[in-house]
Write a structure and sequence with these properties.
Elements: H1 20-38, E1 45-50, H2 51-55, E2 64-70, H3 76-89, E3 94-100, H4 101-110, H5 112-118, E4 122-126, H6 128-144, H7 146-164, H8 182-192, H9 202-221, H10 229-236, H11 244-269, E5 292-295, E6 298-301, E7 304-307, H12 319-330, H13 336-342, H14 354-365, H15 370-379, H16 383-386, H17 407-419, H18 428-437, H19 448-462, H20 467-478, H21 482-489, H22 495-505, H23 508-525, H24 532-549, H25 561-569, E8 573-579, E9 582-590, H26 595-605, E10 608-618, E11 621-630, H27 638-650, H28 652-665, E12 676-680, E13 688-694, H29 699-709, E14 714-722, E15 725-732, H30 737-751
Parallel strand pairs: 2-3
Antiparallel strand pairs: 1-2, 1-4, 5-6, 6-7, 8-9, 9-11, 10-11, 10-14, 12-13, 13-15, 14-15
Length: about 750
């Protein structure tokens, strides 16, 4: 007998079972328990499971969705009490109702949630004839009302996706409600119940099963459906995956399969809105749609692309590329049957004919329209046939707040953004290919840039590029991070920085390509990777590098006349300029070790978030040029900021104590990662110290103070906020290995 505070599927039940076996065990246990609670109720009453219990998909944390179905018996309330109260006492979540068949059908007509729930109705115990009557009548009504119900269901799916995001590309997705999640998978079966489409195929069944397996293990640890980073690491082992990356790659692939299947389903069952350019002529008396040629061997028919009459895919290696280009440029999707037949085409000859490469470039040049086309090709297994190197990037996660997409989707998005920048470069084709392939080395052992250079070095000639173009493409892969890293880490007023950048780039044409690729890569990465401030840094670097490549000498550091006047006055000053929220702040102070920490602390106390800082010294005085913006509201009283700086110069200890006190009271997001310190050496200029740490008030102050305490001399700083973390980079005077280790220990101690 089950006790009042106990139920047969508590979160720790059956730790030996995983996946379908766990779901069957929990469902069977719940059925036995509920059957015992109903007892011998006699005819005219039935206990019906809907939701996860109805589908046999219970997890250790599932609620019970139950309907007590009856024929009007006057004692049904007493029957309900002997079920509901023990369930409540056991602390199991319960969604319940007591209805007749007619009442259930009426509720379903008014409420979509009730309607889709009854599609999963399953008898647990009691009068089976009542349940069969309900199921048959509801299913008949669901099919009869499909014209009204399907748009309603589609709208619910869209609203849920807008609210919960896309599962495949979220850092911490909701397995149930995100786009491509379990609710979307259920929608596929709900649509199939109208008999307007077939039941989902094996790929969707397997994808849903994987998400259920993950959700089942997640439920042992948490009642929610959000798969946090911490849980991803913990679940990989119990689910038999190598690590969290391997697990999340499978989760992302499953979500993409479900989302794509749902998109295709809506396209087949909902009325299609056709643009004027894509609207098709109707035949005589409205009998079907007329075919219209779109490309060689490709026709438009009823809102989709199909193969032309008499076309034999086995004779045409370029047919998949023609279909892709036609789909991207026309906005019409290829039909499923067409995608299936394209699998019969022979491989494209190697090296690719010029026409094949042209078709790929035309597809990419369509911009955002190309993304769903290539996603469809990927789901059909066609994209990796064209580019086998793509396979190791498929659904590969990038588990940080910086990246919005998986590796493969990021590459498609970068090419999509690059399509809008083709008029800024002399070789649009190389820009598009560079954007598509710049991270192709990710997913394989080794540095992704070096691996990517090797892959593209082999791929370029196979695509039909001549030696010079292939070399340029490899150069784009080699230096695809150069401009962003230099702009965001280095002092752009340093002539050595500009000269070294120009030497690496080599020529103006390559500079233009790299500038466009940098913008495309950054915008496709996520909101934290691109901003007006970062765009300004990139433009400044490109402008100065272009001048050097044109034969002009590297720029020298020059203060503006107002800055020169401030510095020559030889007194502490704080002057702000610019428009809110992007502020440029000039701070004049006596030069001494730790002055950057002092200024950063004073600004932090006035809720100013520093983005960049550069120091200029002359005759014992320094001018710090600071880019910052207020964390909240408008800018502070600058006279108070000046006073704070002056006090900090005289007594740095109290300033640090006040910053620490304010930081403790300042709310900030928690980070799952500990602080990390990295030294970066390259041919550009001074060494770079990069610090990644949880965000919070005064972090830059603490780091700069720790560097000064260990004997480091900071010349400039760049600061970024990425989700719950900050990534601060400091250009420092050269240090030997022992001094670097001392600085590293000091910084980590300050952030502990």
């Amino acid at each position: 007998m089950t006790g009042p505070q106990q139920h047969p599927y508590d979160p720790q039940s059956r730790p030996d079972l995983v996946g379908p076996a766990l779901r069957r065990s929990l469902t069977d246990a719940a059925d036995r328990w509920l059957t015992g609670l109903l007892g011998d109720a006699g005819p005219g009453v039935a206990l019906v499971a809907v939701g996860s219990l109805g589908r046999g998909e219970l997890t250790p944390a599932s609620d019970l969705d139950l309907v007590l179905l009856h024929d009007g018996r006057p004692d049904v309330g007493a029957v309900a009490d002997r079920i509901w109260y023990p369930v409540w006492d056991s602390k199991v979540g319960l969604d319940h109702s007591v209805r007749t068949v007619a009442e259930s059908l009426a509720a379903a007509r008014e409420d979509l949630k009730v309607a889709v729930g009854l599609l999963d109705a399953r008898l647990v115990a009691g009068d089976a004839t009542l349940v069969e009557q309900l199921r048959s009548r509801h299913l008949a009504r669901w099919r009869a009302d499909a014209v009204r119900r399907l748009p309603e269901l589609a709208a619910a799916c869209r609203e849920r996706a807008e609210r919960s995001g896309e599962l495949a590309y979220l850092l911490e997705p909701d397995l149930k409600s995100s786009r491509g999640g379990l609710r979307d998978a259920q929608a596929l079966w709900q649509v199939a119940a109208t008999q307007r489409t077939d039941r989902p195929g094996e790929a969707v069944v397997a994808a849903k099963a994987l998400l259920l397996d993950v959700r089942g293990e997640l439920a042992r640890r948490s009642r929610g459906d959000r798969l946090t980073l911490q849980e991803q690491d913990a679940l990989a082992g119990p689910l038999g995956r190598r690590d969290a990356d391997a697990l999340m790659a499978e989760v992302a692939a499953a979500a993409r399969t479900i989302a794509y299947a749902l998109d295709v389903t809506w396209r087949s069952v909902l009325p299609r809105e056709r643009s004027a350019g894509a609207r098709l002529r109707r035949g005589l008396f409205g009998r079907g749609a007329a075919r219209e040629p779109v490309a060689a061997g490709v026709d438009a028919y009823d809102g989709e692309l199909v193969l032309g009459s008499g076309i034999h895919p086995t004779d045409d290696a370029l047919l998949p590329l023609r279909v892709a280009a036609a789909s991207a440029t026309s906005g019409l999707p290829a039909s499923l049957a067409t995608l299936d037949r394209l699998g019969e085409c022979p491989p494209v000859p190697e090296p690719w004919p010029a026409a094949a490469l042209d078709l790929l470039v035309v597809t990419l040049a369509a911009g955002p329209a190309a993304v769903p086309v290539l996603e469809a090709f990927d789901q059909a297994g066609l994209w990796s046939r064209l580019l086998p190197e793509w396979e190791h990037t498929r659904s590969r996660p990038q588990r940080n707040a910086y990246h919005r997409f998986t590796v493969d989707r990021h590459l498609l998005e970068a090419a999509s953004v690059a399509a809008g920048l083709t008029r800024t470069v002399g070789r649009p084709d190389l820009l598009l290919l560079g954007a598509l392939l710049h991270d192709i080395g990710k997913g394989l052992p080794g540095d992704h840039t070096e691996v990517g250079m090797r892959i593209v070095g082999e791929l370029g000639p196979r695509l039909g590029l001549d030696a010079a173009d292939a070399a340029t493409l490899v150069r784009l892969i080699q230096y695809h991070l150069l401009l962003a890293d230099t702009a965001q880490r280095r002092d752009l007023d340093d002539p050595e920085v500009i000269a070294a950048t120009a030497a690496a780039v080599g020529d103006v044409d390559t500079l233009d390509l790299l500038a466009a690729l940098t913008e495309a890569d950054s915008r496709a990465t996520g909101p934290a990777a691109w901003s007006r401030w970062k765009a300004g840094l990139l433009a400044r670097l490109v402008e100065r590098t272009r001048a050097v490549l044109g034969g002009q000498p590297p720029p020298t550091t020059e203060l503006t006349e107002p800055q020169r006047a401030l510095l020559e006055a030889r007194e502490v000053a704080v002057v702000a300029r610019g428009e809110h929220p992007d502020l440029e702040i000039d701070v004049v102070v006596p030069d001494h070790p730790g002055v950057i920490a002092t200024v950063a602390g004073a600004l932090a106390l006035h809720r100013l978030e520093i983005r960049a800082l550069a120091a200029y010294t002359e005759d014992g005085w320094g001018l710090l040029s600071v880019a910052a913006h207020p964390r909240h509201g408008s800018g502070p009283d600058w006279a108070l900021v000046r006073a704070e700086v002056a006090r900090g110069l005289g007594s740095p200890g109290p300033l640090s104590a006040r910053v620490a006190q304010s930081a403790a009271a300042y709310p900030h997001a928690a980070s799952a990662q500990p602080p990390a310190v990295t030294w970066v050496d390259d041919a550009v200029s001074e060494p770079i110290l990069q610090v990644r740490a949880p965000d919070g008030l005064g972090v830059l102050h603490r780091i700069a103070a720790a560097i000064a305490l260990a004997g480091g001399d900071v010349h400039s700083a760049r600061c970024q906020t990425l989700g719950a973390d900050v990534v601060d980079t400091f250009s420092v005077a050269p240090l030997d290995a022992v001094a670097r280790e001392r600085v590293t220990r000091s910084v980590l101690a300050a952030l502990a």
